[in-house]
Amino acid sequence: MEGMEGAVDVSGLPTVNAILNLITIVLLVAAYIFIRQNNITLHKKTMLTAFGTSALFLVTYVIYHWFKSGPAHYSGEWQALYFFILFTHIILASVILPLAMVTLYRGWTMNVTRHRKIAKVTLPIWLYVSVTGALVYVMLYF
């Protein structure tokens, strides 16, 4: 909306978002380890927490872009790599929310066969989105 830029100081949110991505990565890996150990209860709790950190990321990301004009500009030496990472990150980020929701629902309702099938697709995409989100932050701000 017009007039929103600069209304709130959101300069710290990219760092918050990077931290949320890093926490999500750790949670996803831990949840994978828990399910490989057949610890379904801890796997479920950890996956729900990972979904929560990802949801919080989405909220803070939208807030940041609501109050900030345009995206940050990359000025480093690796522009082709940066834009490849950014492009694939954006495309996959747009599909991870519905994938994660379906995967979580199937797991929560113990529809194990269908959960496993979609989780094999969801986990690598979710990890890629989280890792590349943190990587984009590093490339932009360091």
Task: Outline the structure in words.
The protein has 142 residues and is mainly alpha-helical. The protein has a single domain (13-141), classed as Four Helix Bundle (Hemerythrin (Met), subunit A). The chain contains 4 helices and no strands. Helix 1 packs antiparallel against helix 2 and helix 1 runs antiparallel to helix 4.
How are the SSEs placed, and which strands pair?
Layout: H1 13-36, H2 40-67, H3 79-108, H4 112-141
Helix pairs in contact: 1-2, 1-4, 2-3, 3-4
List keywords for this structure.
142 residues; mainly alpha
Mean pLDDT: 93
Q: What is the CATH class designation?
A: Mainly Alpha
Report on the biggest sheet: none
CATH superfamily: Cytochrome c oxidase, subunit III, four-helix bundle
Instruction: Please count the beta strands (DSSP E, at least 2 residues each).
Output: 0
Estimated structural class:
mainly alpha
Question: According to CATH, what is the topology?
Answer: Four Helix Bundle (Hemerythrin (Met), subunit A)
Unreliable runs: none
Quaternary organization = single chain
- By DSSP (H or I, 4+ residues per run), the number of helices equals 4
What fraction, in percent, of the residue positions are helical?
over 70%
As for the number of domains, it is 1
Give the second-level CATH assignment, the architecture: Up-down Bundle
Nearest-angstrom radius of gyration? 17 Å
N/C terminus separation: 30 Å
What percentage of amino acids are in beta strands? under 5%
Shape: elongated
